[in-house]
Amino acid sequence: MAEKWVLMVTAQTPTNIAVIKYWGKRDENLILPINDSISVTLDPQHLCTTTSVAVSPAFTHDRMWLNGKEISLSGGRYQNCLRELRARASDVEDEEKGIKIAKKDWEKLHVHIASYNNFPTAAGLASSAAGFACLVFSLAKLMNVKEDHSKLSAIARQGSGSACRSLYGGFVKWIMGKEENGSDSIAVQLADEKHWGDLVIIIAVVSSRQKETSSTSGMRETVETSMLIEHRAKEVVPRRIIQMEEAIKDHDFPSFSRLACSDSNQFHAVCLDTSPPIFYMNDTSHRIISCIEKWNRFEGTPQVAYTFDAGPNAVLIAHNRNAAKLLLQRLLFYFPPQSDTDLSRYSLPSHVDFYCWKSVNFNSLKSIFPLCLLFSSYVIGDKSILEDAGVHNMKDIEALAAPPEVKDNTPAQKYKGDVSYFICTRPGKGPVLLNDETKELLNAETGLPN
Amino acid sequence: MAEKWVLMVTAQTPTNIAVIKYWGKRDENLILPINDSISVTLDPQHLCTTTSVAVSPAFTHDRMWLNGKEISLSGGRYQNCLRELRARASDVEDEEKGIKIAKKDWEKLHVHIASYNNFPTAAGLASSAAGFACLVFSLAKLMNVKEDHSKLSAIARQGSGSACRSLYGGFVKWIMGKEENGSDSIAVQLADEKHWGDLVIIIAVVSSRQKETSSTSGMRETVETSMLIEHRAKEVVPRRIIQMEEAIKDHDFPSFSRLACSDSNQFHAVCLDTSPPIFYMNDTSHRIISCIEKWNRFEGTPQVAYTFDAGPNAVLIAHNRNAAKLLLQRLLFYFPPQSDTDLSRYSLPSHVDFYCWKSVNFNSLKSIFPLCLLFSSYVIGDKSILEDAGVHNMKDIEALAAPPEVKDNTPAQKYKGDVSYFICTRPGKGPVLLNDETKELLNAETGLPN
């Protein structure tokens, strides 16, 4: 075995948004939840993590770089994932490079991991879900772990609970399981991303001045202090899981929307019932909800569902392209960009929007906001929705009419600057291996970040 | 019986703030709640309703004026109160004026009612509670209704649920009762206002751009759609009622504070769990909660309890005068007045603050804000707390230091203009008759508003 080789795998994994929420653990170390949850996987073209993992006899210890900056792997969550994967590693042979790794060698070999998100880490868009899913998926490929995605999901779960749902595309259920060791707490795919291809997802990244409670400490405090969480987990969610599976199977958007909205609201209700109370939504989040509720009521049947994770950002799921167009018009009407946003840049190739973020360390939304203005635009992702909406520049936004559900006699209040930007996306596929060498994040010779 | 006489009674009734919340009816017409509630009566010197009621054979129909403007009495709630009172009226004799009214005459005689609040009706400060309590109390005196306050509370309850708790001073429990006719759904006094005389109450009237859901429709929608309200009403509140009664009896402020805060948060949680969700608190409310929670945690034991009704205003209950002083300093530090507020006027006699409101029709907080600046000041009510806090003018506010619980390295964010004004008050007494003719709201000769 030559001492200089580096063997590398690069993979891409999507993030996901829960429509029946995970909130509360029954085991903090194994990350076992108190109820099932269901999510939609988001298109990795717009929101994903890319991870390169490499092994070499030259590596002296396990190392990891996140968005270009080295981070510690000493945390229990990383250690749990690495231990579980090494225990399942198999023989690996690369005939072309003349590399042979025996199953038992994996205990001694060290790995390098480089990971980056094509979206701001701090924006509250479940970066840890995509991140741990990608780490587990790529290491499993590198180490020739022969288990299926559901088994891998149980490993990713130990990194970040919701990461287990990012092992699949489309619509995914995380079964809470009953075993004490967590072996049956796994994700399963309910339907792939083509099953309900009409859905369009628009994410409103909401400006926030508040420091948010981490979901780990938040859910611990809820389980310890809320008088409502047990009733939710034991009585309410099990029924909603059955109904949501039906709604997805039947493409029943009214039921899907009703369940997703109610469950998001109930998750935030139990946060509020926590002592001290946890507020993830702010006035802007509330205004987005009111806008959607009013519109859905006006139409007589839901056009758009909303759901909010542990932060103020709205994830809006439109029934179809037409509803998405009407939604984007409403959002831009109520939440126009700051006047100095250069909306005309929206025709830049989409990778430009994201690649410019790669080398920047995002500590807060505030710090990215000026960059967002400089390099990107106010509506990113699938910009064809913006085309559909007939919006090409600031003047088009200023010319948008008040939605018909607004009563004529009350001039609609506008909230300029309350949304940082919008991302247009859709349900997407699960993890994939990338064979394009230009996407590798580690140097093929040194195993250090590119 | 001379045809020209007018017989009049004038009374004053306090408002109250629930510390274990009433939310949800089991009977919409009789206004029967789904759980017990407990409130603190607020000092009528700072927040009360004054009502004059008059009877005369010259009156052709029942009429009412609220804050100087005639309103309709045709609503079921007014009609229920009037019917219940007439059914219990007795013989009345005023020897001095030579007036004799027989029990049976009350069915034919008409009444005039004039009522005003010494606080803005639209400010979300439970004006209907004080209003209906005062209407029932004063009419009962006029009609010589011989029932005790608990029986009267069951009549006031049919005007506005929480009105029943305004029939007593101090600490009051509204027992939900079991009877279908509501006869046992009454208020009882747990302790009078002197029992826990140390408490100081500061109300932050929060500026709001949102139109709020009325509590009547809000609680109906919660009962119809929330999956958590039943568990709250049946499992959580009964235990809290027992614990809150104990805490009040024992002057146990830590328990009182924990229960009041948790129950306020849970009430807002079930509002959020309603479909469509109801948001009464806004970002300013959340910031006030965070300020109190951080301070209480820093001190190791609660200094101040918070509670929010169906609106964004914070009702803050301080353990004692010293805690109230420290609270007011914190509130003025985080929420300084708009720079054009004339704080130096705060030494005007307190009745000037309120009497100027009497003749104004307040439709929204926005409309009163400039008046509040003109005629009153930023801290009203018991201004001795402001003296304790050492704040006499804008410069004193600007000189306030950041509270010690704020970490040194993070400059505290301030929110100028987010609070309209503060009211300093305390637990207070129940309804009283006013014998001062200058306080009568109806003309003694004509029975029309003064």
From TrEMBL, chains A, B:
Enzyme class of the recorded protein, top EC level: lyase
UniProt-listed Pfam families:
MDD_C, MVD-like_N
Task: Extract the GO molecular function terms from the UniProt entry.
Answer: ATP binding; diphosphomevalonate decarboxylase activity
Q: Where is the Mvd1 C-terminal domain?
A: 201-431
What Gene Ontology terms for biological process does this UniProt record contain? Answer: isopentenyl diphosphate biosynthetic process, mevalonate pathway; sterol biosynthetic process
Under Enzyme Commission nomenclature, its number is 4.1.1.33
What superkingdom heads the lineage? Eukaryota
Function as written in the Swiss-Prot or TrEMBL entry: Performs the first committed step in the biosynthesis of isoprene-containing compounds such as sterols and terpenoids.
Stated name of the protein: Diphosphomevalonate decarboxylase
Q: What is the lineage of its organism?
A: Eukaryota, Viridiplantae, Streptophyta, Embryophyta, Tracheophyta
